[in-house]
Design goal:
four-stranded mixed beta sheet; three-stranded mixed beta sheet; 33% helix
Length: 163
């Protein structure tokens, strides 16, 4: 009886971890963060975003913000109260659905005149994502794979089964 319970716990743990194995955390702008006069489209062009990944916007709170907008809001650099404007200075955005995602700074003319805008395409989560090209920039260091947590959990689960 105890063995079957441990087997169920083990399988549930593996299922949860496998679905998040490819998840990465991307710091928008890498060490530059979310700031004026940075080319965020160039930053994003070689990255592949999947459902389950997260974006982190680092900036000086009170100086900038992050607004999730639609395509029209992105082109016109306009926000509304329904956009869910983030202001913490360390905003974490989970990418929960596939499709185009648009983000702008809604402070003053930061989007319109100073290029504080980002558009990405999020791909559906797959069981075996295609490997991304090896990056030589610091962005490779800032995208943190969760494989280490998977290995630790797998090892711990195996130890539980042996006890």
């Amino acid at each position: 009886m105890a063995t079957s319970r441990l087997s169920i716990v083990f399988m549930a743990t593996i299922f949860v971890l496998v679905t998040s194995i490819a998840a990465k955390e991307y710091v928008v702008g890498d060490e530059n963060g979310w700031k004026l006069d940075f080319d965020y489209q160039n930053w994003a062009k070689d990255k592949v975003f999947y459902v389950g990944d997260t974006l982190v916007f680092n900036y000086a709170a009170g100086v900038h913000n992050v607004a999730k907008v639609n395509g029209t809001g992105f082109q016109q650099c306009s926000t509304s109260a329904s956009n869910g404007i983030m202001t913490s200075g360390q905003d974490v955005v989970p990418l929960q659905t596939p499709g185009r995602k648009w983000y702008i700074c809604g402070v003053g003319k930061h989007c319109e005149l100073r290029n504080m805008k980002l558009v990405i395409t999020v791909l559906p989560q797959t069981w075996a994502p295609a490997p991304s090209p090896m990056a030589t920039s610091t962005s490779a260091k800032l995208a943190v794979p969760t494989i280490y947590g998977f290995v630790v959990a797998l090892f711990g689960s195996l130890l539980l089964l042996l006890v």
